[in-house]
Fold this protein.
Amino acid sequence: MKKRLIGAALAGLTLAGFAHAQSGQAQNGAQEHDDPRIHVAHLQPPRSGLSPLSDDAFKLSRWSMAETLIRLDADGTPTPFLATEWERLDTHTWRFVVRQNVRFHDGTALTPERVVASLTAAANAVPKPRILDGVEMTAEVEGDAVIVRTQADDPLVPNRLSSPQLAIMAERAYGDNGVIDPREAGTGPFVLTAINGVTSAHLDRFDDYWGERAKLSGIDADYVGDGTARGAALRTGRAQVVEAVPVSQAALIDADLIHEVPMPRTNTLYVNTERGPLADPALRAAVREAIDRAAIVRTVYEGRADEAQGLLGPALPWAAGMRQPVDHVAARAPEGTRITLGTFTDRAELPEVAVLVAQALTQAGFEVEQDVREYAHIEADALAGNFDLFILSRATVLDSGDPVSYMVSDFSCSGSFNISQLCDAGVDEALAKAAATEPGEARRQAIIEAEAAILATDAAIPMLHERVIQGETTAVANAERDPRERMLITEHTTLSE
């Protein structure tokens, strides 16, 4: 009873912010329109003042405020956005034609010069946007186009330019000392008019948008870290769209308001292939055969996850149709082999997953010792190969919308996040082939072949693919349910009275 009262109190306190945001609309520069405004409850507040060079860029993108040269379709294929067309001139050089008749929110024109200035600011930022880690990129104007050059051969340049961290902003956004203020500086259908610290933000429709005029007159965004409060906001209608409704809250909400979105995130059991008992491929095979994916999904995730068939899940819909059976070595009986299993507490479900994994392995004949700590206190040991097994929830598609970087990082001989300590010539060859292949069908095929090579080693045992629960009231139509979390409210989103 006490727990429920505390939760209700937290919800009441947090929801007060919604009422404050609504009453303060006029003070925050919102204009009066006949069309409705929509209220959104976000999981996390901005960490860098909504700078587009930080992870806050994804909020600007989800509000359809900031736009990039390229946009990715559902399969991760680059499509035109602020660039209408592009071509690869040589292995290091690309040419992007800039869309004409586009205005920034402050009324200034989008030009190739402004594109170059934005890309150059990103390339020179300290720290660099994550999408440019390890990438040396320059840009220059050529007529109505922009020439982008990279120091290394990089077939993913169009994918990189789709990252919200490389949004094109008006000159007014860029202040001294690298500070960027995104207010009235984007090109999207909504203009950011007010930033209220880590509490809320407000946007109005931009009537001079180059594309289709937005159906909504504006967006009021609140940051609601408490999951109980987000669930209550959806139930009461104080927010019409709610990010990341907790599983515990979903059971209390009308099923018509709940939408599960597959995420490009896989809960994986990493297996130490270099030393210890699991350096034996036959014992790694015994671990794989012992894992009960269905029990983990049913028990820990209450059915709100997908059993893994490979490293790449439903968020990459092309993967399942291209995947072929993997040849594994035969397992041998563990016969009491002692192994260590590690994971961390920062993601609440992982210790529960560890308990089920340990039970399954014990039943299969292993003796299992668990080590569960905060991530900051266990990461170094995991990367050093101090565990036989380690459970990790891992994003499989990083900012480029392509899984090769993740695979190289986690499973190549030179990988910087190689918890499995894997160094296999066949895997490296498959990864090199995938990395060098142009985006499209051939690259996807090479990626699936690399996945098969990794899975054949049993260095990674994918258990499940996570979903996020997005809440929407029945009045909402055409809100995006985007696995990559780049889109949410768009010019097509509507809200009925």
In short: The chain has a mean pLDDT of 91.
